[in-house]
Amino acid sequence: MSRLILVTGGARSGKSTFAERLLQKLAPQGGTYVATAEAHDDEMQERIRLHQAQREASGYGWHTANCPLQLPEWLTEADGAAVLIDCLTLWLSNELLQAEQESGEGPELEQRLDARIDELLDVLAEVQGTFVMVTNEVGSGVVPAYKLGRIFRDAAGRLNQRLAARADEVYLVTAGIPIEIKSRMVQL
């Protein structure tokens, strides 16, 4: 049986550090770090380098898989593994940008994103293992000024809600403090 854990919070809240430590505790023998970021500039290259150095310094048996776009497809091969996905909103933004290049900003863009979210959820329902998934909480800020930003924010909100509904545990990380929130969820 799979164990799905969602870790959410704002930018620089400590989500990744918490998720790494959590997977290390759950799978002390080692795990796979699925990196979804793409380095399009020097600053992002440095961020990725720092994340890699932090993982290496931990002494944990990390195997890294770079997966900026084909996440559902990659996960079909991860059956039985201990996996940390960092992060789902980067994966979703990569999917959004690719879909925009191929189909523009019409209604098919949102349909395509929703289809990719469906594929991810379908795969997670089938594979076995421990999956710790990091995502950004993007709905607490201002409404984006541009259409593409609003499409992304709405799709990320749908992704997070659907994953949280399926997850066994959901953590909110704020100022480096993780709080388990799913067990405190109000049932209506």
Automatic annotation (TrEMBL):
Alphabetized Pfam families for the sequence: CobU
Molecular function GO labels: adenosylcobinamide kinase activity; cobinamide phosphate guanylyltransferase activity
Pathway: Cofactor biosynthesis; adenosylcobalamin biosynthesis; adenosylcobalamin from cob(II)yrinate a,c-diamide: step 5/7; Cofactor biosynthesis; adenosylcobalamin biosynthesis; adenosylcobalamin from cob(II)yrinate a,c-diamide: step 6/7
InterPro entries: CobU/CobP, P-loop_NTPase
Name of this chain's protein: Adenosylcobinamide kinase
Catalytic activity: adenosylcob(III)inamide + ATP = adenosylcob(III)inamide phosphate + ADP + H(+); adenosylcob(III)inamide + GTP = adenosylcob(III)inamide phosphate + GDP + H(+); adenosylcob(III)inamide phosphate + GTP + H(+) = adenosylcob(III)inamide-GDP + diphosphate
This protein's UniProt keywords: ATP-binding, Cobalamin biosynthesis, GTP-binding, Kinase, Nucleotide-binding, Nucleotidyltransferase, Transferase
Organism of provenance: Paenibacillus apiarius
